Structures are given as C-alpha cells and as structure tokens.
C-alpha cells in the first residue's frame, strides 16, 4: 500500500499452505493458488496430482487440514454454510450436476423457493430472464435430462452466476463436447471474463490450456510446482513440469506399416471381428467392416455421429436392429454383454462410473472382475494370481495407488479409468473395443495406455477404438469416420489431422488421405 504502486484488487480466489490428507495419503501438501479477477487460469497435473482435491477444498466440500482460502480478500465461509459458498464459487463438471427429473427452471431456482406457495408462472418467467441475461438459449420448461451436455453446462454457469459467484471452476468441461461445442463454450467463457468472471480450468487437453487460459499452475504429487503466464511456457516445458522429467519430444503412438505375426505363427490378417449390415435405428445406418488379427480399427466421429452407439452395439450394451456381428466366424448374440464377453470381446466403456467399476472393491478385484463375475459371490481373500495380475497392470498402466488392495473409490478419476482398461485386458480378449479410452487420462499415461491397446493387436488379436481424439486414432491401422450415422470416409494409417477432422465434421475428404464412402 505504501510502496507507491496502485493497489490491485484482491484476487477472485487465493489459497495458501493448503494440506489435505486421506488416511495415509497426502493429497495436497502445502499448496497454493491465486486466480485474479477476470483471469482464465489453468490447473494441470498428472492423474492423482491433487487437482480434484483442490477443487473440493475451494468449493467447501472438504475442509483442509491446514491452510487458508480467501475469496476477493475475504476468508472462505464456514464449512457447511452452503449458501455462502454458492455465492462465491461454483464448479461445472463435464456431467451436469443438475437434477435430471426437474425442469431447467426448477433446477435454476432449486433450494431457494421462498416460503409458502411456489408460483410456477413466476418461476418460469424468472428462469427465462436469467437465461436471457447470460445469453443461454434454452427453454426453461425443458427437463434437465433432455439437455445436451453443452446446454447443461451453460445452465450450470448461469445458475452459478445467479447466486452471485464470480469465480467458476471448470473440471474437464470439454470431455464430452465436439469441436463446435468447445468453441461455443470458450466464446461464452471469454465473454464472461470480460465481465470480470474468473475461471479455474482443469483439463488434460493441453492445447485447450493454450487456447483459453492466460495463466497456468502445475501440481505434481500433491505439490505446487509452478505458476506462469501461458505465453511464457512452451508445451515441452509444461509437460516436463507435470512429469518431473526433462523435456523431451512427445512419443505419440503411430500405427506400424506392417501387421504383426501371431506368436503361434498363424499368419496375421485372418478376420477376427466382422460386422455385416449391422444397424441401430436412430443411431447408425447398416455398416459392413472387418477387423483382422493384428489390426486396430478406429471408429471416428463427433457426438451423435453414431460411433459410440456402434461401439456399444458391438459389446452388447445396445441391441442392433439389423445385421450381425461375428468373432472368428461365430455370430455374437445381439444385445447381450455376457454373450459378447464369452465371444471374446473385451470392452472399455465410455462411462466408467456407471458401467466400469465397483467402487467399494479393491483395485485388484476390479481389475479382474467382469460383468458376469459381479453377479457371483466373491471371496474375501485376494487370490495371489489376482494380486499378481493387478500389480502387473499397476506397473504397465502406471496406476497411482498404494497397492492392489486399495479401494477403487480412493483413486483419482484418471487412475480409475486405467483400472477399467486393466479389467478389459484381464480376460485376454480376442477383440478389445475401447470407447474413448483416454478420456480423463493425463498426457504421459495416455501413451502407456494406447501402447497397451496397440499391444493387443501386436500379439495377434484385434482392437477397435471408438473416439474423436486424434491421438487415440493415430494408433489405428485404419479409421472409418462416421457422420450422422453414416460412413463418410475411410482412411489408412497415413491420414492428416485436417482430413480426419473434416470428415468428422461431415465434410467429405478432398485430395489425398481418405476415400469417400460408397453408399
Ligand atoms: N476419498 C479419498 N480417499 C483416499 N484417497 C483419496 C481420496 N480422494 C483422493 N485421494 C487420493 O488423493 C490423491 C489426489 O487425487 P485427486 O483426485 O485430487 O487427483 P487429480 O489430480 O484430480 O487426478 P485426475 O487427473 O486423475 O482426476 C490421489 O492419490 C488419490 O488417490
């Protein structure tokens, strides 16, 4: 104050010396963060670095064991004073937190009905005004369950702002948005920044950090490593700060030119998985393809392209309305996950929380469970084989855990995803179908994980990756791109980013790379 400088306004949020332990695990070790008013600040780190734990401290969900948090220079509210926390900070997750059965209007004014009778017409009118104020184009009478991910996030942002919060945390908000949706979200965030709203943005997509944020903070192993202007920090240095290893050129996976030989000597190239006229009304048109031994096939496509539905049909989560799928020449019964598993199809689901894990069970049990096994009784003693397998997976997928016996509920999100992958591999599947396998996984683990998927093919089996992530698709020997339920292009391994992105956006490939679909 007395040093002659103009006084700067207090930051939107300032945390220092924050410590948070979960039993023996130190999730945050004397960390801090400062986000200036109107700033867009990225928080990055490997899976298990402590990002989500910081979010729960900054939103009042967990009280820290030590340290201080202040908003606009004022100490954080007392634990449990929900209204006071809501007036300062909100967190928007990739999955909307709104109540699905209620309308948008009800969600917006949830928990703040005045005493007495609710006036529904006023409620709807207020909601309409509120959405209009923040430029959110959604009908307040829509059921929250019917909103797209993008609309749900916009409603959440409007809700947070209406409580008075001027600091919003976005925890992997782009994970389920396509390119156009991400652009619309970023445009909205930039608009709000102009109005003085501050953001803390958590993402494993480092390019998004460069596109959106002006400041970046890196955590590693529960510690604060650095905070710097994004413009001053190159990508290699950013990754080096995250991993603690010297900067090196990224090792992204690329498909090899020649297919692998099976160890048994059987020539590569036998068809393993075949789809003939496979169709699901309302999701995708009849499609034919074959995946050979030694091959990884990519099914690329944006949201609503039908690629996820196709993957889910292959693994029996959805029942085809036409055509058939077979493994090694034997038909797989449509719409039955146990049957698909028995036919040799292993799968990595998109929604790991609903379809992937039994949270109360250990890493080892989850890594070896299959859907059918979950129905049977389970011994309390860990068989040593289970533990050995789990330990191997922990090592090869770089799962951050205290060991095979740790409950999966204690792992960070990205590490839970790796357990799901481990489980899919436990049965040595003949075909591995992985839906967005690297969602939520940090840059370094991503390579390890894609290497494991590649390894399934290289040992002479087959794999299918369903994704819109270019890095996932680079592992593939061949990529089929879908758009609005139809094949729009097919590529060998030499595609360019531009060609594949164009195809996923519905523009048929021009010269080079892809060939148009023959429909
Ligand atoms: N409820 C809990 N009980 C025990 N340990 C926990 C709990 N929650 C988190 N941890 C541990 O704290 C550490 C930090 O986890 P956190 O979820 O904050 O990581 P993260 O950086 O958000 O990771 P990701 O990128 O995978 O989401 C991890 O080692 C995790 O296992």
From TrEMBL:
Statement: the UniProt record of this protein carries the keyword RNA-binding: no
Membrane-spanning segments: none
Pfam families to which the protein is assigned, alphabetical: ABC_tran
A Gene Ontology molecular function term of the record: ATP binding
Sequence ranges assigned to domain ABC transporter in this UniProt record: 13-246, 267-509
SMART domains tied to this protein: AAA
Assigned keywords, A-Z: ATP-binding, Nucleotide-binding, Repeat, Sugar transport, Transport
Family matches, as InterPro entries: AAA+_ATPase, ABC_carbohydrate_import_ATPase, ABC_transporter-like_ATP-bd, ABC_transporter-like_CS, P-loop_NTPase
Organism classification: Bacteria, Bacillati, Actinomycetota, Actinomycetes, Kitasatosporales
Protein's name according to its UniProt entry: Simple sugar transport system ATP-binding protein
């Amino acid at each position: 104050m007395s040093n002659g400088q103009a006084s700067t306004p207090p930051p939107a949020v300032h945390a220092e010396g924050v410590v948070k332990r979960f039993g023996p695990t130190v999730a945050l070790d004397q960390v801090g963060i400062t986000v200036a008013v109107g700033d867009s600040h990225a928080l990055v780190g490997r899976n298990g670095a402590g990002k989500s734990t910081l979010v729960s401290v900054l939103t009042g969900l967990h009280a820290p064991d030590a340290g201080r948090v202040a908003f606009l220079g004022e100490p954080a509210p007392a634990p449990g004073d929900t209204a006071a926390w809501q007036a300062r900070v909100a967190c928007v997750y990739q999955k909307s937190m709104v109540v699905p059965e209620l309308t948008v209007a009800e969600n917006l004014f949830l928990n703040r009905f005045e005493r007495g009778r609710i006036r529904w017409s006023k409620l709807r009118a207020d909601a309409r005004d509120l959405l209009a104020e923040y430029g959110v184009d959604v009908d307040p009478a829509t059921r929250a369950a019917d909103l797209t991910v993008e609309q749900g996030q916009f409603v959440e942002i409007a809700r947070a702002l209406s409580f008075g919060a001027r600091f919003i945390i976005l925890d992997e908000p782009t994970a389920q948005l396509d390119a156009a949706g991400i652009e619309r979200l970023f445009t909205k965030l930039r608009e709000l920044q102009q109005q003085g709203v501050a953001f803390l943005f958590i993402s494993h997509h480092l390019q998004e950090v460069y596109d959106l944020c002006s400041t970046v903070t890196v955590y590693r192993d529960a510690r604060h490593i650095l905070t710097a202007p994004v413009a001053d920090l190159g990508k290699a240095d950013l990754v080096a700060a995250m991993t603690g290893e010297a900067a090196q050129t990224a090792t992204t996976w690329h498909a090899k030119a020649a297919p692998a030989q099976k160890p048994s000597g059987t020539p590569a190239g036998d068809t393993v998985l075949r789809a003939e006229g496979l169709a699901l009304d309302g999701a995708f048109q009849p499609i034919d393809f074959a995946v050979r031994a030694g091959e990884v096939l990519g099914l690329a496509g944006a949201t609503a392209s039908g690629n996820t539905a196709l993957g889910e049909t292959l693994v029996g989560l959805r029942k085809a309305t036409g055509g058939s799928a077979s493994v090694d020449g034997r038909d797989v019964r449509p719409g039955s996950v146990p049957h698909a598993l028995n036919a040799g199809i292993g799968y990595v689901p998109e929604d790991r929380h609903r379809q992937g894990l039994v949270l109360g069970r250990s890493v080892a049990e989850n890594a070896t469970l299959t859907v059918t096994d979950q129905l049977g009784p389970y011994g309390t003693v860990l068989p040593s084989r289970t533990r050995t397998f789990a330990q191997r997976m922990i090592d090869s997928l770089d799962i951050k855990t205290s060991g095979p016996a740790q409950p999966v509920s204690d792992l960070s999100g990205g590490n839970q995803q790796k357990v799901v992958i481990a489980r899919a591999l436990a049965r040595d599947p003949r075909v591995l179908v992985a839906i967005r396998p690297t969602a939520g996984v940090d840059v370094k683990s991503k390579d390890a994980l894609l290497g494991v998927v590649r390894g399934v093919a290289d040992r002479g089996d087959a794999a299918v990756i369903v994704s819109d992530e270019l890095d996932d698709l680079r592992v593939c020997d061949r990529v089929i791109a879908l758009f609005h339920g139809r094949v729009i292009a097919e590529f060998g391994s030499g595609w360019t980013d531009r060609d594949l992105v164009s195809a996923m956006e519905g523009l048929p490939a021009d010269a080079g790379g892809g060939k148009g679909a023959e429909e």
